[in-house]
Amino acid sequence: MTSRAAVVVCAMSLASVSMQAQSPPDFSGVYRPINAFGPAPAGRDGAPPPAPRAGGPAPGQPLPPPTRTAPLSDGSRGRAANAPKLTPEYLAKWQAISKARVAGDSSSDNTLKCLPPGMPAMMNMAYGMEVMHTKDKITFFSELNDALRRVYLDGRKPTQLVLDDPTYAGFSTGHWEGDTLVVDVTNFTDETNFHGARENLHVILKFKRVDAKTLSMQFTAEDPMTWTRPWTAVQELEKADDKTTLVLEGGCHEGNYGLTGLLINTRAAEKAFREGKGPDPATQDNATGGGDN
Question: What's the pTM value of the predicted model, to 2 decimals?
Answer without folding.
Answer: 0.67
